[in-house]
Amino acid sequence: MVQAALAQAPLAQAPLTWSQIVRLGLVQTALGAIVVLTTSTVNRIMVIELALPAMLPGALVGWHYALQMLRPRWGFGADQGWRITPWIIGGMAVLAIGGSLAALSTALMAASLPLGIAVAIAAFTLIGAGVGAAGTSLLALLAKRVAPQRRPAAATIVWIMMIAGFAVTGITAGALLDPFSLERLVLVATGISLVALVVAVVAVIGIEGPAAAREAVPAAQAAPADGRGSFLAALAEVWAEPKARLFTIFIFVSMLAFSGQDLILEPFAGLMYDLSPGETTRLSGIQNGGVLAGMVTVAVLGTLLREDGAGSPKLWTILGCIASAFALAGIAVSGVLAPAWPIRLNIFLLGYANGAYAGAAIGSMMALAGTGAERREGTRMGVWGASQAIAFGIGGFLGTVAVDVLRWATGSSLIAYGSVFVVEALLFGVAAVLALRIARLSGEDPLPAPTRPESFALGAGGG
Predict the structure, then answer these.
(1) More confident residue, 45 or 359
(2) Which of 128, 264, 291, 300 is the most exposed place for a label (fewest CB within 10 A)?
(3) How far is CA 329 from each of CA 44, 255, 426, rounded to the nearest angstrom?
């Protein structure tokens, strides 16, 4: 994850300038532009236009997240002296091919379902490998070249630019997809993938510098020949740290809630509100626009206000989780009042709450990444990144499976989708409690005294 990768690490070369940091952020923008098409638009078309089980795109997206379990290994390779730029460009090229093939596979499913599924498996394999290789290598480059005092801001910039890629692509693709056809889907996805690849290549070229200028890994930090012993020891050491372990669980629960709606929100809007593929794709853009606004709000408040008061990342992590729970509850009941319910506003508010939680969690993770045993920042990043990947894969898949099973058992799409949204809201409530426990484990209590009477002191004494 961005914030963990930018933990305190010595610089091997001259630090990156702000313009170079923004250029690397464009790589994240390009990466997000391709990914959002596969996790929102393509899955909606499989479920609504092709009337396929929701668990099919859920399994495909889950597979792409499973492949990202290799992220720690890619990061380890960068630490051992890999040249990073080729891995970023190569990963983006693989991702662009995967994004185009994902759209093509959807069109093929209309003619031959077995052939379409086979191509889709290949496409999402490329997507998972491309995201892991490009994303992890990018974080490694940032970790090596960003000055310590700029790392929190650099993490926020790069994360926000990725969300901007989600939002801009959702809105742009939504406009280009109407009037909808499968042929238009393939053309739009291929065009966006090519543009994203070009942007990423132009953004990263020349930043890393010549290979000769990079420092070799000190012998004292080199891994054993078998590559296993030191990694397992570091993993055990990090897991033994109470705050790191609890934060890993928090990431898993909160990301499970966050990702559970990822693959079902557009199909829900299409069914309940009779929206076209272009209109539901624009909903994805609205949601990610809300995420962007929430993250910017928390970043500004954290800069202007005291970190031990209203600007506390821990406070906004908790409030973001609680607000996300209420927004999901609103969507759960919205189907009863459709089409009168202001679904676009509700989805924007869900994005805003998600952005506030995610943006604040960046600040909390930056603080936690440098605590505990020394020289373990990268291992913590790997553990937290793996937790995020597992949660996203499981959350997306289980959300779609639950919808399919409940629709079959109840015969009602309204009950099926609403029940899943309610469960996600409850998970965000659990995440809020975990976030408060982490703060108290650090000797803090981010909740203002007037808002926490003893009878409502969640997690009191849990630290």
Answers:
(1) 45
(2) 300
(3) 21, 17, 9
Residue 3 pLDDT exceeds 70: no
Length of the chain: 463
**Cα Rg, the chain, nearest whole Å:** 22
Whole-angstrom distance, CA of residue 443 vs CA of residue 362: 19
**């990963």: which residue's tokens?**
91
pLDDT at 449 over 70: no
On whether the CB atoms of residues 351 and 287 are closer than 8 A, the answer is: yes
For residue 238 the two structure tokens come to 């990090």
Query: Quick one: angle between helices 113-145 and 377-410, nearest 10?
Result: 150
Under a CB-based contact definition with an 8 Å cutoff, are residues 251 and 237 in contact? no
Q: What is the pTM of this model?
A: 0.70
Domains annotated on the chain, with CATH: 2-209+228-442 (1.20.1250.20)
**Helix ranges (DSSP H) in 112-180:** 113-145, 151-177
Among 91, 95, 93, which Cα is nearest to 137's?
91
Angle, CA of 58, 62 and 67, to the nearest 5°: 155
What is the C-alpha to C-alpha distance for residues 400 and 347, in angstroms, rounded to an integer?
19
For residues 154-174, one letter each, b for 16 or more C-beta atoms within 10 angstroms of the residue's C-beta and e for the rest, the string is bbbbbbbbbbbbbbbbbbbbb
Evaluate if residue 432 carries a pLDDT over 90.
Answer: yes
